[in-house]
Amino acid sequence: MHDAVPQGEQGVYADPAELPPLDPSDWGERQREAFESPEMTAFVDTLRVDGKDVRESLLDDLATYHGITPDQAREECLGWERSSADEWRRAGASDGERGRVEFYRSTRSWAFDLCWWAYLQAEGRADASNVMALRFAQQHVIGRRHLDFGSGIGVTSQLFARSGWSSTSADLSSTLLDFVRFRHERRDDEVTRIDLGEAGLPAGAFDAITAVDTLAHVPDVYATCRRLHAALGPGGVLIANFDIREPSDGTAWHLYSDAQRPLFDLRRAGFVPIGSVGYGLVGYRKARAQGVGHVARSVWAWCVLVSPARRAARRITRPALRRLAAAARRRRG
Fold first, then answer.
1. CATH value at residue 258
2. Distance CA 145, CA 74 (A)
């Protein structure tokens, strides 16, 4: 994760219905275990509604909610990135915080993106990040109070809630939270929701927080992680990643092309890594954010992540990592 190479634009989504049969031979161990697990069965069930399969259910969610046809919903899913770039420009999101907030409060395209991403996970065409996060939390967390920070369409909260946790979905996007309410009510899922544009996070209220593909969209990672630290109870666990991207029109909402600085900010906010989750996610334990131990951990994180020597080493090695990543993408076709 520390040496991740940023991706470029995603482009138009693939449609599993038009792809060759799934070949799991190049899956990693975590993806294989997650895909074959009871938690994956539960994840698939969170996506289905009224006896339909996953694809039909998610397209029906979008079509019913937005008053369009399933075929139109599919087209919006496949081309969501172009629509999102248009929304970003209209909101003036590149001009400052006010525009970014307006983008998140009003986005329509992300519901289509996240529904299709959940479908790809259910089909084994994308890493089962939600399932991996749940499996890690069940192994490392004592309590069962969960917060999904940057909850998107609410599938992570559904999965945790159906696995015996009390779960809360929190997001800055009021449009996404409205869609979350619609999806949850259709499936009788009991999940609390927090609109981060109107309310903060309660102190010490959670034992586990997931932030899957969220923190790369946050302009002040340190301040955000301090709030997450405060929202966790003693010994609580944060499961998070940084989805870094190369700067372009289609990745403008990804604010980082290098994970080192935001990782340092997360660590100095009072989090200690305890293990890899899969999909680039890492589990962090809440630690005391003051005192000699905290200072020592912060100095070590500075040395290995953002010190001048570390930055110089990355300038040397990063071109080679980019070439390796490009070669891997070519092999995948």
1. 3.40.50.150
2. 35
